[in-house]
Amino acid sequence: MYILSATFSSTTFLKPRVSSSSSSSSVSSSSSASSTRLRLVPLRSSSRRSNSACPCSFYSASKVRAMAEMVKDKEEKEESLSAVESAQRRETRHSRTFLNVTSEAELLSAIRLETEAGRLPANIASGMEELYWNYKNAILQSGSPKADEIVLSNMTAALDRIFLDIEDPFVFSPYHKALREPFDYYMFGQNYIRPLVDFRNSYVGNISIFYDMEEKLRQGHNIILISNHQTEADPAVIALLLETTNPHLAEKMTYIAGDRVVTDPLCKPFSIGRNLICVYSKKHMNDVPELAEMKRKANTRSLKEMAMLLRGGSQIIWIAPSGGRDRPDPVTDEWFPAPFDASALDNLRRLAEHSAAPGHIYPLALLCHDIMPPPRQVEKEIGEKRMIAFHGTGLSVAPEIPFSEIATSCKSPEEAKEAYTQALYNVVTEQYNHYSLLLSFYNQTRFLPCNS
């Protein structure tokens, strides 16, 4: 582990490195559609970066309604099947169109052939092809000597998983456990995002607190991470930065996920590999008014699932109380954590307090927007242009903040709720600003910290 030769405030920054056992940057499918072979491909940093836009599919209100009906029907048919059994059925029926390709030309041809055959909607096919070129450009800018190999391997796996979901759409339950077999979706996501991270310019702050968290989990305690949210790749970035020091945290973490990441065809395969509590964001609750009541009921089911998890103890849950991704200031173009919603945060705090297991709430700051920044404005429609780049990232946790320490000086429960939310937000913003300055410094000077 590399240690930064300077510190900011009380934060200790460590430099993540890719170990020999986890440095594979590509995923290749073996002769079996249900297995994954991980290939070791070294990474090399570069001062260059690319930004490419990728159009995804868009859904109308009528299609959203149809999807809701499909989800209900499929849940009834498959409720007796285990997740693995259901996944095995999907793999058995799945086409091998993308798994059989051996070159870029064959991969792009496969997209066109499936579109012409009517098995792949034209708008999704367009998104898949654009995704290929944008991902390739980003990997090429990383300077990796095996960029072409990484791109073909990872994009073959990605397009195969996307096409599988078009053929047989995956349905997320309120509590979704990462699907690791017969296809390992977790490692698929890790290896797809890995070559986009400039590890030589990525940092983890206050690493000792992550070790403390692991000890608390072993004791049966619950951990709640109150974080900002920057990209669809956040879960993979967090896991990649922790995988050599705290792999248990990386794989065990459960994310509170909005409906968009479990309905967008280009995003769903990556979500399947994470532990999720699926909720509908307040920002999109009334996008389709006639679906608002269904969404509220779904959120109630998800809260019950979360309460059951916390009651069992030894859970680590990540939530972004902002209800969406950070956006840059429209005037200064500077990025900053979006404000937290006090009600969302307070609901989770009370769930943790009422569980039998002790709970601990920590502020977590994440800086990775350059890898896959969101649209400048919040969009109602499912589907968006995806920007992809090779860049450094940052992750920092601060000491836990007990609610009682803030509430004692407040005159009412409502004041305490607002004060606690603001206290957590202030710490996240402080940590975030340290990283923003840090990465800006190294991007300008390209001076790397020494190896200790």
- As residue ranges, the low-confidence spans are 1-13, 19-64, 71-78, 445-452
- Largest β-sheet summary: 10 strands, mixed
Whole-number mean pLDDT: 81
Q: What coarse outline follows from CA principal-axis ratios?
A: globular
Please identify the structural class as seen in this structure: alpha/beta
* Sheet with most strands: strand arrangement: 1-2-6-12-11-7-10-8-9-5
Radius of gyration: 21 Å
CA-CA gap between termini = 8 Å
Strand content: 5-15%
Helix proportion range: 40-55%
Helix count? 14
Task: Write up what this structure looks like.
43% of the residues lie in helices and 12% in strands. Helix 10 links the parallel strand 8 and strand 9 (275-279). The longest helix has 33 residues, at 413-445. With 452 residues, it is α/β, with parallel strands linked by helices. It has a 10-stranded mixed beta sheet with strand order 1-2-6-12-11-7-10-8-9-5, with helices on both faces. The chain is globular.
List keywords for this structure.
globular; ten-stranded mixed sheet; 12% strand; 14 helices; disordered N terminus; 43% helix; 452 residues; alpha/beta; disordered C terminus
Task: Give me the secondary-structure topology.
Elements: E1 2-3, E2 13-15, E3 24-29, E4 36-40, H1 61-78, H2 83-93, H3 104-116, H4 122-141, H5 147-167, E5 175-176, H6 185-193, E6 203-205, H7 207-218, E7 222-227, H8 234-242, H9 247-252, E8 254-258, H10 268-272, E9 275-279, H11 292-312, E10 316-319, H12 342-354, E11 359-367, E12 394-397, H13 403-407, H14 413-445
Parallel strand pairs: 6-12, 7-10, 7-11, 8-9, 8-10
Antiparallel strand pairs: 1-2, 2-6, 3-4, 5-9, 11-12
